[in-house]
Each structure stands twice: as C-alpha cells, then as structure tokens.
C-alpha cells in the first residue's frame, strides 16, 4: 500500500516526459512499442497447438497491429506544431550541381550516320567497302546522337533541405539558386526561397 504514491509519481513523471518529447520521438517510441507487442503476440500464437486456432490468433494479432499503427500515424499527423515553429521552414543541408542529359533528335542521328557512311565508304573495296559503309553509318549515327545529347545537356542544381519537423526534401533548379549549406529557407508554392 505504501508504494501507490511512488507509483503515481513515477507514472506522472513518465507522462510528463512523453509530453516533452517531439511528435516524431513520440511516434517512434509508439511504433517501437507496437512492433514489440506484435512480435510477442506472434510468439504466443506460435505456441498454439491447433493449426486453425494458431492461424486465427495470427490474423487477430495482425489486425490489432494494423489498427494500432493506423492510430499512431493518425496521432502523429494530428500532433500540434509547437507555437512559433514553422512547418514549412527548413535549412539547406547541401547543394549538388549535376548535369541533365539533353535529348538527341533525328538531326544528330542522320548527320552522324551520313558522316559515318562517308568515312566507312573510304575503307576497303567490294563487299568489305559495303560492310564498312554500313558499320560507319551505324557507328556515326550513334556517335551523332551522343554528341547532340551532350551539346544539349544542361546543369541542374539540387538543393537538399531538412525541415524543422525533421522531414527531408530535395528541389531541382535549372539555374543557380544562390543557396549554400546552412541557409534558412521557406517552402512556398512548391519551391523554396531564402528567408
């Protein structure tokens, strides 16, 4: 009987600690608890000797697991954002410059094929010349396509962002966005702008 005040104090401390956690930390703890419970339930079901009861036990365990996970997700999505916290605010974690391959058109294919055929026609005689012409046309067409793709390639700037609520996102720009790692940004109308 003397342990009840101690248990009540411990329970209040645990509830207070849970409220102090971020919604993401609460969600992670809850999903871990649900997964542990599901594993324990499956183990108990495995001890059932009757196969029909064992299968029903497993179905019931899975149903309970799915229901608990759905409730945890709903609570996480409905969790209030801390006052003053910006749901669409974040920080640039990195900016990566890459190259986007251009698309080749029929022009590069045809020009390369003609040039390759002309060069191939200069090699050998008889059937060898015909084979060299065909091979030159095929190789030239491929080379012409690749040259045109390279000539039409463009630079792409990919900005990686971590939001204040822990989410991550990436945004592609066809011009230099003038952002560096550490810059504070806002997500507005599907893109990001510096604060």
Automatic annotation (TrEMBL):
- The protein's name in its UniProt record: Glycine zipper 2TM domain-containing protein
What span is annotated as the signal peptide, if there is one? 1-20
* Glycine zipper 2TM domain sequence ranges: 107-147
Superkingdom field: Bacteria
Pfam families per UniProt: Rick_17kDa_Anti
InterPro entries documented for this protein: Bact_OM_lipoprot/Surf_antigen (IPR051407), Gly_zipper_2TM_dom (IPR008816)
Q: Which organism is it from?
A: Duganella alba
Which Gene Ontology terms of cellular component type are present? outer membrane
Location of the protein in the cell: Membrane
Alphabetic keyword roster = Membrane, Signal
């Amino acid at each position: 009987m003397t342990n009840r005040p101690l248990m009540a104090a411990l329970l209040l401390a645990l509830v207070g600690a849970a409220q102090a956690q971020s919604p993401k930390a609460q969600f992670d703890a809850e999903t871990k608890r649900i997964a542990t419970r599901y594993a324990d339930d499956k183990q108990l079901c495995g001890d059932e000797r009757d196969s029909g009861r064992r299968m029903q036990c497993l179905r019931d365990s899975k149903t309970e697991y799915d229901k608990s996970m759905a409730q945890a997700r709903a609570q996480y999505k409905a969790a209030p954002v801390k006052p003053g916290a910006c749901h669409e605010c974040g920080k640039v974690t990195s900016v990566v410059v890459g190259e986007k391959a251009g698309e080749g058109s029929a022009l590069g294919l045809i020009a390369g094929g003609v040039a390759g055929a002309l060069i191939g026609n200069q090699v050998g005689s008889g059937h060898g010349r015909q084979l060299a012409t065909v091979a030159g046309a095929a190789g030239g067409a491929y080379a012409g396509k690749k040259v045109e793709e390279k000539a039409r390639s463009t630079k792409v700037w990919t900005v990686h962002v971590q939001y204040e609520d822990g989410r991550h996102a990436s945004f592609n720009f066809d011009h230099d966005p003038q952002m560096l790692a550490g810059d504070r940004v806002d997500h507005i109308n599907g893109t990001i702008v510096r604060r």
